[in-house]
Amino acid sequence: MKICKYDANLMIFMKDPVNDFEIPEEWLAKSPLPRNELEKLVEKGLAVVLSDGSYLKRGFTTGTTSAAAAKAAVLSLRQELSPETIISVPTPIGLRAEMPAAFAKDGKSGVRKVFNDHESDITRDVLFCADVRIVPKSSVEPVMLKKAASNIIVTGGIGVGIIERAGFETPAGEYAINPKPLAQIRNSVIEGLKETSRFDEICGTDSDSVLIVIISIPDGVELSKKTLNDRIGIRGGISILGTTGFVEPWNDHLGEMKDELIQHSKKLVLTTGRQGMSISSMLFPGYDIIMVGSRISEGIAAAKNAEEIVVSGLPGLVLKWGNPAMMKDCEYATVVEMIERDPKNERIQTAFDMAVKKGKGARIVVIERDGLVLLDSKNEFDYLMKQ
């Protein structure tokens, strides 16, 4: 818990460890869950608390799920794991992720991706498998040995896509396993080796052995047909991704569905980017949150059936949408710099007033990256205002 001061009043905040959002006490107090249960979920990164006190379940990324499968496979080299054995693995942000193994025996394992509240996540409940093999270095091709780190080689199998062009974090010709989840898988494997007292055997400088980890997704080829992988240059499966290790319970890649969703939405939030989307999803539970970038006016015009429209986003896009000339002949390089150094600058309020007028009845909410509401045309979030 953390004490913060706003409006000369002391307010208690609990910080979400995944997105660093400081959850106001007012939100926590509305939750139907017992306080200790809610706090445990938040502390583990498993729950996103919304402004009405409800919460959504986070899930784990394809990278975290693959890491759990890899560790389970390593543990099973010592003995078969009973079904539902909980596997604990590290995530890139320092939290632990826990999930049950579906099976784990003789170096082969399967873990199902946790079912989260992200309705567009096509990999929910999908089985991720790992096959680990200890082999002599002499039996491994030199090109594969170059990929070893601590004598551990992580590669893909069926259902994991292959990169076909340059421009990705992973080179062309390699399996679509991004660097962060790759490191996460290796770290989880190392944990498994230490827990089975085999770390020195594999990772020691004098070791003549290599541990090969093959990640596969039995349904990956079919699942990839529901993604854009083929169009962007990833063939034959899905990608192993994840920067935090957690999946947020909303969709920031609506793609071609945006226009249709806007047209049919009754309660609509148009937001400017991913940060705006994540914060808006907490501020406005029950609304359709659509990311439109700088196309705010087009989004409002398309919302023919909306009973409520909110424009919510970071200052740079929202205020400059209100007044494109806001920064003309100004001593500040960015809107954010102006707000930080001169929060009472009249240009800020003028641009906001212009945005309200341009919104034609839409509620305008300007938020900061830390989740605080800077400006709200309905003044319903005053308790978050900075002084």
From TrEMBL:
Pathway annotation: Cofactor biosynthesis; adenosylcobalamin biosynthesis; cob(II)yrinate a,c-diamide from sirohydrochlorin (anaerobic route): step 6/10
EC number of the protein: 2.1.1.195
InterPro entries: CbiD (IPR002748), CbiD_sf (IPR036074)
Pfam family, one: CbiD
GO MF terms, alphabetically ordered: methyltransferase activity
Gene that encodes it: cbiD
GO biological process: anaerobic cobalamin biosynthetic process; methylation
Keywords: Cobalamin biosynthesis, Methyltransferase, S-adenosyl-L-methionine, Transferase
Name of the protein described by the UniProt record: Cobalt-precorrin-5B C(1)-methyltransferase
SUPFAM superfamilies: CbiD-like
Gene3D superfamilies documented for this protein: CbiD-like, CbiD-like domains
Catalytic activity: Co-precorrin-5B + S-adenosyl-L-methionine = Co-precorrin-6A + S-adenosyl-L-homocysteine
